[in-house]
Amino acid sequence: MKVTIWNEYRHEVENAKVAQVYPNGIHHAIKDGLADAGFDIATATLDEPEHGLTEEVLAQTDVLVWWGHKHHKDVQDEIVNRVYQRVLDGMGLIVLHSAHCSKIFNKLLGTPTCQLLWREADEKERLWVIDPAHPIAEGIDRYIELPMEETYGEHFNIPAPDQIVFVSWFEGGEVFRSGVTYHRGRGKIFYFRPGHETYPTYHNKQILQVIANGIRWSAPTRSAKPVYGNAKALEEVKPKVKS
Amino acid sequence: MKVTIWNEYRHEVENAKVAQVYPNGIHHAIKDGLADAGFDIATATLDEPEHGLTEEVLAQTDVLVWWGHKHHKDVQDEIVNRVYQRVLDGMGLIVLHSAHCSKIFNKLLGTPTCQLLWREADEKERLWVIDPAHPIAEGIDRYIELPMEETYGEHFNIPAPDQIVFVSWFEGGEVFRSGVTYHRGRGKIFYFRPGHETYPTYHNKQILQVIANGIRWSAPTRSAKPVYGNAKALEEVKPKVKS
Amino acid sequence: MKVTIWNEYRHEVENAKVAQVYPNGIHHAIKDGLADAGFDIATATLDEPEHGLTEEVLAQTDVLVWWGHKHHKDVQDEIVNRVYQRVLDGMGLIVLHSAHCSKIFNKLLGTPTCQLLWREADEKERLWVIDPAHPIAEGIDRYIELPMEETYGEHFNIPAPDQIVFVSWFEGGEVFRSGVTYHRGRGKIFYFRPGHETYPTYHNKQILQVIANGIRWSAPTRSAKPVYGNAKALEEVKPKVKS
Amino acid sequence: MKVTIWNEYRHEVENAKVAQVYPNGIHHAIKDGLADAGFDIATATLDEPEHGLTEEVLAQTDVLVWWGHKHHKDVQDEIVNRVYQRVLDGMGLIVLHSAHCSKIFNKLLGTPTCQLLWREADEKERLWVIDPAHPIAEGIDRYIELPMEETYGEHFNIPAPDQIVFVSWFEGGEVFRSGVTYHRGRGKIFYFRPGHETYPTYHNKQILQVIANGIRWSAPTRSAKPVYGNAKALEEVKPKVKS
């Protein structure tokens, strides 16, 4: 399973506080955290040529993990379309935290997914497992507790998810659909809420476990590529008399 | 309930065969067919200024019915965005037949909804009611039989619908999810398959009944408009000590 | 629209504290609260003959509202089966609060719906609207706040709902899927969480509005009654040669 | 992965025509057909003590495959309850063909799942892949064609599935939701339609592939067992003053 972890990778460079939490960038924190998961992991970042997501890289990627925050607009539409096409063709996509605002998530979902409530207030978050049968909950306790995180609250302007795995409780009074799945074409998508850049969320074992689960769950399905367009009948059609 | 029926209205003008079936256009056939449904119905067409969908018209439209086929590209993006915003704000949208390829449906759903199998072969279609509890099935028999229609077949590249009301059987060997619902933001969407321009489908009483049901079902919900963006906590948040 | 409100009606008789909140019983509090909703409302209680749910009563009931708590076992299986059959045939069912443990809800859903977390601790509950497009959210603000309620928490052992309208936040750290819909056969079901007998929840205008919305939403659909069993082919079947 | 294939195993004994197709029984045909799938497969049948489903057997079963037809009533309720509990606890369940009428499927789903249209008329069936992203469609072409099968038609009285993977087209004019998934508690359920005892359906490679996919998909998730019942608050609850 070939995994590419994409990161905006600007906060970590520009902001000393973030660099302290993620000295090598969020992408490397996740890569290191998944070292024992058995994946073949590469990374890519916004400021590489083609954002590190060349045709070759994407063609060999089974699952793409995406973290972005403040520079969604700097992602070129051409690359977004390239990722979009790969998802439709079966590549898995894990959308993390503020990537709910990314062009690719928005394009795949069809709603202004950037819309939700938020604040940065060092709140406790508790992610409750709503669907303990789901493989994304593998190895997870009844809930994951994070001592401090950015808060997201409903209404989150997403389509009705295929499945809801986690719902978060926040100290400040909000709830949030924090782990939700979709499919588009042959590709599977998992959105997972936690991971603000100033908190050590991607060092948390349970959070890493969920990301690993999401990667496994969203692995490509080798079903036949659908055929579209004009098609001959498979059965004999009786001639009709039009009035 | 204010309903606006939008029609491309070019086939009926350019093609004598179509004009014979729908002398005043598909929009007027549907309008006339819904005369007893108790709606306040207006029409709009592609070649009117702003495609007949000015800010004023849309602001007063509770449910928009959309039929288009060959000239989706001629619909200006500005108008598409205007309709999109209105759907998110609560306007119902009924998408008919080949409008599965329309810019608005594609934008709302996030998949290349134009992708499906099709042929024109005068086939019998039988639309089976899959969900008899759904209000869109109100007054409908176990199935609707159409003696001749254009054929659509799976795979239909749509997201998993919120609800599936009808699945079609086609003489030539295909099946198709023919009546499916979604919601996006506060707006409800109903896609209904039948209605190729060369067949008298929109004169069929049961088809008209389904469209009327869809209009009633997709009427705006007067819930509070969601608030998005930065928000204060509703509960006291305990001060934390960061390590 | 004929509505029957069913109540266990024992707490109010046996417990002075409850009687103070609901002197005429929860059923009458809801009935009075819906006085302006335009329904034709009757009531029925556990200790009436046949629990007040005779064949005649149920045959004329469009929507049945059900509140029960400690005496689920006293509901006769014969009456449960009668209600079950009516739901399959189209009668709407509104299941309130601790009726998640009722025989009828359990039978319709197929899971041990009694299973959830709970405590009585006078906690604040905030019911967030997750689906502002849903007619059950009609007229409701972004959330409903209840100063004190019994707490329910996940995991709630229900099947994946057709739709989730509300998710609750509780002061004590839990979340709960508080407003969920299902359909079974031709009948629609709405489960709505709040309403412990010691709190004045059913005097709250927004809670009553949600119940009224639920009743309207779950009104019977007059689609054709499905036909089951052995059936002749609708199309000619070619003779086959078996090897 | 430990798989137990349960079969009623009476048709094959009593009916020479069926014995010709499945000389060792349907359970062994499926077991043999999955020989290369990497499962540890056992079988069990109705006329064994406890139907071959002792506590020990079930405790060690990851996924149970169930085929039954005419003798559903002979399955003891105690064993049904045992299987039911194991599904809630995480065991996967594959329900084949006429097992839609089985006590266990009915109990888990909550609807009279026995209700559908049917006939035995040697009809062609074509199972269309509706969800090519689903792991149950792994390795499957756009559709599976069976030259002859028993016909099932809608309305099929099941709850809205979590996911629909296949929809069948039948020569005689019906459609049917032939591959559908559910979850109940921690257990995953896959219903797969084909497999009448007089046809060699379980010798078909693609059908066997789907069953193998279903088994892998429904493997238990090792999430924490949910806790139910009275629970202490996780957060401090402010004392309230009741009026």
Automatic annotation (TrEMBL), chains A, B, C, D:
InterPro entries reported for this sequence: Class_I_gatase-like, ThuA-like, Trehalose_catabolism_ThuA_prok
Pfam families: ThuA
The ThuA-like domain, residue ranges: 2-217
SUPFAM superfamilies hit by this protein: Class I glutamine amidotransferase-like (SSF52317)
Protein name: Trehalose utilization protein ThuA
Organism the protein comes from: Paenibacillus piri
